[in-house]
Amino acid sequence: MFPLSLFMKTTLAKNVQLKDKTWYVVDAKDQHLGRLAVRIANVLRGRHKPTYTPHVDTGDYVVVINADKVVLTGSKELDKTYMFYTGWVGTSYRRTVAAMRARRPEFIVTHAVKGMLPKNRLSNDMLRKLRVFAGEKHGIEASKLQPLPVLPRG
């Protein structure tokens, strides 16, 4: 019939080709944690670009402000817990979201985004491109901070 090259050509990105990274800023005030984490994780992975390749880090940088004002639905504020383990026998401890919000509010957003990134070697590189701040002010001196793009569903 027809050769496949007439219809479509798939291009795979390489690390050498990726030079310019965009910096996005998102205000987490009154946003649901899970839905926000999905949007951030997709931008960190590069799913918003036509050059997205699963095995290459094609994503951009994301700056999150107002992480202490993120919203959780239902009774997750008191029921959801984070477990930590020091490495010594019998020294694991748990903290609720309310306790973590008082102590380290950046952890809540970072932990949610980390859970939505792929479980491979690229996830650490992607997570390094995430900057989370509890308040309005951030120390990022990027040339142009753009609002986080809204990705189509599906």
Q: How does this structure look, described?
A:
The protein has one domain: Ribosomal Protein L13p, Chain: A, CATH 3.90.1180. It is 27% helix and 17% strand. It contains 5 helices and 6 strands. The chain has a 4-stranded parallel beta sheet, with helices on one face. Strands 3-4 form a two-stranded antiparallel ribbon. Helix 1 packs across helix 4 and helix 3 (97-103) packs across helix 4. The chain starts with 22 loop residues before the first strand and ends in a 7-residue tail after the last strand.
Quickly describe the structure.
Helices cover 27% and strands 17% of the residues. The protein is α/β, with parallel strands linked by helices.
Q: What tags apply to this protein structure?
A:
154 residues; alpha/beta; Ribosomal Protein L13p, Chain: A; four-stranded parallel β-sheet; two-stranded antiparallel ribbon; globular
Succession of helices and strands: EHEHEEHHHEE
Helix percentage: 25-40%
Instruction: Give Rg in angstroms.
Output: 18 Å
Q: Calculate the mean pLDDT score and round it.
A: 88
Q: Give the CATH architecture.
A: Alpha-Beta Complex
Q: CATH superfamily, please? A: Ribosomal protein L13
Low-pLDDT regions: none
CATH class: Alpha Beta
Which of globular, elongated, flat, extended, rod-shaped describes the shape?
A: globular
Total discrete domains: 1
For the biggest sheet, the summary is:
4 strands, parallel
Tally of DSSP β-strands: 6
CATH topology type? Ribosomal Protein L13p, Chain: A
| Percent of sequence in beta strands | 15-25%
Number of helices: 5
What is the topology, as strand order, of the major beta sheet?
5-2-1-6
Structure class: alpha/beta
Distance between the termini: 31 Å
